[in-house]
Specification:
mainly alpha, Multidrug-efflux Transporter Regulator, Chain: A, Domain 2, 3 domains
Length: about 240
């Protein structure tokens, strides 16, 4: 019986190892991106064999750049990718996002590392998250803004305050943001995207100035009017 030679058919894409080697990303991260809909579905030739479109290499590098440079949450990155896939220019939106989200500062921590860095217990952290006092951009991923806030909360709790005592911060913060969003909509809803992004960027910068100015001035006026530290109207 003659030996039947295997036909060398071209592979339908790249294996996971090739994606990892070409992007420097671990398998878990790539699978997470895929699960979030950031990558096209691979071609599966068997339950344990999947081939990815070679274009995924550039797409993964782009996602990595967006996270590192613009500190964007994955949901926002997915929106930008979808717009780009439609042929839209996302440059004005990226510039706006950089103003909103800022630059990456320090490592991203998981819950255990956050607790270790701040002195919070896992129980306290859970309570602060449920109360919307700690608001990570991605579930389970904490940046240096979260760390700084967590340290303040730990001191407050150590001084005898309860989490419920601080609940007015997210409640009033949400009210302020709701008002700001309504103002933004009124000014920009009739404008094209590039003009909308430019005005929104300036409004973000202005809002940060006004939040700090008004709240601090109200506090300063209250202190100036107080007779002494025991005055009930001071704090």
């Amino acid at each position: 019986m003659e030996n039947i030679k295997k036909i060398n058919r071209p592979k339908p894409g790249l294996r996971m190892k090739a994606l990892m080697d070409n992007t420097g990303l671990p398998k878990s991260t790539i699978l997470h991106y895929a699960a979030q809909g950031l990558l096209p579905d691979p071609i599966k030739t068997s339950p344990n064999m999947a081939y990815y479109d070679p274009a995924c290499v550039d797409r993964l590098k782009y996602i990595k750049m967006l996270q590192e440079k613009y500190r964007l949450p994955l949901a926002k990155i997915k929106t930008f990718l979808n717009l780009q896939d439609q042929g839209r220019d996302v440059t004005p939106l990226l510039e706006l996002s950089q103003v909103i989200f800022g630059h990456m500062e320090g490592p991203v921590l998981d819950e255990a590392a956050l607790c270790q860095a701040t002195g919070l217990s896992a129980y306290q952290l859970t309570g602060l998250i449920r109360a919307n006092l700690i608001l990570p951009l991605e579930p389970g991923c904490y940046n240096q803004d979260d760390v700084r806030a967590a340290k303040v909360y730990r001191e407050a709790l150590a001084n005898g305050l309860d989490i419920s005592d601080l609940a007015f911060y997210p409640a009033m913060g949400k009210e302020i943001v709701d008002h700001e969003m309504r103002l933004r909509s009124r000014l920009t809803r009739h404008l094209p995207d590039d003009q909308d992004a430019a005005i929104t960027k300036q409004m973000v910068i202005d809002a940060r100035t006004l939040r700090s100015y008004v709240i601090d001035r109200l506090f300063q006026h209250r202190v100036a009017a107080a007779i002494d530290l025991k005055n009930d109207g001071l704090l």
